[in-house]
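Late entry, written up from scratch paper. The run itself happened at the end of the previous shift, but nothing got recorded in the book at the time, so transcribing now.
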Amino acid sequence: MARKPSLSGSHSFKSGAGGGALPWLAWSLIVLMVDQFTKVLILGYYQLGDQTHVASFFNVVRVHNSGAAFSFLAGAGGWQRWFFTGIGLLAAGVILWLLKSHAGQKLFAFALACILGGAVGNVIDRVLYGYVLDFLDFHWKGWHFPAFNVADSAITLGAACLILDELLRVRRGR
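Output as recorded:
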């Protein structure tokens, strides 16, 4: 079942009867700002490898990830920086188009906005530093989940909301 375009009848980002994409773009900007602010704090107060024990299951660390999720292709020699930057920019373009077309679908648009803010945050890191700055380190009994950041959290939340949106859509279609 195909998604229906916004009820506003407009293909602009302006708010209208169908909701418009501007509130979702504002949410993406908030995600991006929180992501970049937290990274500036880490860059200012931590050297590579520094860590602060916060709880028995959580540390704040400074890790540089030149790869993708779970350090995929981190040791690939440098080409992956621009490859993942390109993928992030392409994803941002597709998401902007989807937000423009489906702004009235709240859960779907929220999910896209989270992913957009996170993707742009990580693209900024790759362009400025050549790596993505990660700093949230969750662990349990010696096992550490790969460190991540606010952008990664927003992307994960957005992906989970996309799955939920699809499950709800399928359920409504029955």
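Helices lie at 22-45, 79-102, 106-129, 150-173.
(Scratch paper discarded after transcription.)
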